[in-house]
Design a protein that fits this description.
This protein is of the alpha+beta class and 450 residues long. The protein is built from eleven helices and 20 strands. 42% of the residues lie in helices and 24% in strands. The longest helix has 32 residues. It starts with a helix and ends in a 10-residue tail after the last helix.
Length: 450
């Protein structure tokens, strides 16, 4: 437990530190280029620990290492403006616009650079995400079961997406709650249309269909002192059928074991290309973290088949741009659906959630951490472009308004707008932290926090 907490803290310091430092570096470079006097460039916040001064700028290391900040002369409404040509407010609006926009731009560029480098080193994704989206399992009492989807159906259209990969199907369902999705399938050579209504599921209240893709049911681990061990099953074995029923996806195994209620099972599995048969009788047993016992044979999975290769620079850059574009559009879609109450605000992650995700990614692999850093950098860049006062997007909006009316707004008006924006951001901060805390509580408390 202590190890998890420490790695979460260290990972979030590194991830957010780099993200915010790169953001502020964008403002710094643009300000220097246009001749704005930069008084402070700080790595971290709070009390100054050490540093040096070069020209007009104090380069410092501060106490709290969660990012950093740039202090430009005459930048805020509370600063005393003397009219010197090196002050922020003395510069033309188009220059101030670029200075404001360079922070988010650097975050978006960082996301592109991180994924490009990662894809050149290792481009990896689950094999089931490529090729046709074929349903391998439909959970009983799920929205997919209610819409009469069946194992083996190939999804040829979902919503406005034609010939989607399974990854596209997952994202579409996750972003849709209690809203009909028109799904066209191919079954036995015929096209049919179904209407799927995903329901909210899980701590984040994302859309849930209750189906999963067709993929080999390979065993990842075999628990000791369980029937599967006694029958000789091993990690890497692929379960082909149970009692004559073909296994097209891992959840089918749990469902068949549950339905047979402890009766003996004939399991056909494949090992190194050779099919073998085992007779296994499930046991009724609970494991750590579960309160109710259930029928088990003692296998964990799936061992997911991965597509792994290295991309050349041009292909890696193209894939990175496509990935970032897809997720940027998804961010806007999620935010829009949260405001229209089509999605729960539980989908948002605050600092505690980011720390948890960062720590988990760091413990998993460097690839996972780099992917998460790219996603957070993209989110940070886009969030800062929202037209909220005190964010870069708010300043950009004010500059556009001043450009249209051809005069600067009064200092008093800007102060009131800034105060309102700050109050709004504080409300958002309180909400996302509350949201993070609620999502860390045991699931039995969910009924107290709708």
């Amino acid at each position: 437990m202590l190890y998890v907490i420490l790695t979460n803290l260290l990972a979030v310091v590194v991830v957010l530190g780099i993200m915010i430092l790169v953001h502020e570096l964008g403002h710094f470079l643009a300000a220097k280029y246009f001749g704005v006097r930069v008084e402070v460039f700080s790595f971290g916040f709070g009390k100054r620990l050490l540093g040096f001064k070069k020209g007009d700028t104090d380069y410092r290391l501060s106490l709290l290492p969660l990012g950093g900040y740039v202090k430009m002369a005459g930048e805020t409404t509370s600063d005393e403006v003397t009219g010197n040509p090196d002050e922020f407010q003395s510069k033309p609006r188009w220059q101030r616009f670029i200075i404001a926009a360079m922070g988010p731009t650097m975050n978006i560029l960082l996301a592109v650079v991180l994924l490009t480098g990662l894809f050149m080193y290792r481009y990896q994704k689950p094999a089931y995400q490529e090729g046709p989206a074929v349903i391998g399992f439909v959970r009983p009492d799920s929205p997919a079961a209610a819409a009469e989807f069946e194992v083996g159906d190939r999804i040829v259209r979902i919503d406005s997406l034609s010939e989607p990969a399974w990854g596209d199907v997952e994202l579409t369902v996750a972003s849709t709650v209690e809203r009909p999705l028109v799904v066209e399938i191919e079954r036995n050579g015929e096209r049919q249309t179904r209407t799927l209504v995903p329901r909210a599921e899980g701590r984040a209240r994302l859309g849930y269909a209750g189906w999963s893709p067709r993929m080999p049911a390979k065993i990842q681990a075999v628990a000791p002192d369980f029937p599967a061990t006694d029958a000789g099953l091993m990690p890497g074995d692929e379960i082909v059928s149970i009692n004559g029923t073909p296994i097209l996806d891992w959840p089918m195994i749990s469902e068949i074991v549950r339905q047979n209620e402890g009766k003996p099972l004939e399991i056909v599995y494949r090992r190194i290309g050779e099919e073998r048969t085992a007779q296994i009788t499930p046991v009724l047993r609970s494991v750590e973290g579960e309160t109710e016992p259930r029928w088990r044979i003692g296998v964990d999975g799936p061992q997911m088949a991965m597509i792994t290769r290295r991309l050349g620079f041009a292909e890696a850059l193209s894939e990175s741009l496509a990935t970032n574009k897809k997720f940027a559009l998804l961010i806007f879609e999620f935010v829009g659906k949260i405001f229209s109450q089509e999605l729960s605000p539980r989908t948002l992650e605050g600092p505690i959630g980011i720390a948890r995700l960062s720590g988990a990614a760091a413990r998993h692999s460097l690839d996972a951490l780099v992917s998460l850093m790219a996603a957070i950098s993209l989110n940070l860049g886009i969030f800062n472009l929202f037209p909220i006062p005190v964010l870069d997007g708010g300043l950009i909006l004010l500059l556009l308004i001043e450009g249209v009316i051809r005069r600067d707004l009064s200092r008093k008006v800007k102060e009131r707008i800034t105060q309102a924006g700050f109050a709004f951001l504080m409300l958002i901060a309180v909400f996302v932290i509350y949201n993070d805390i609620v999502k860390t509580l045991p699931e039995r408390f969910d009924r107290f926090f709708p």
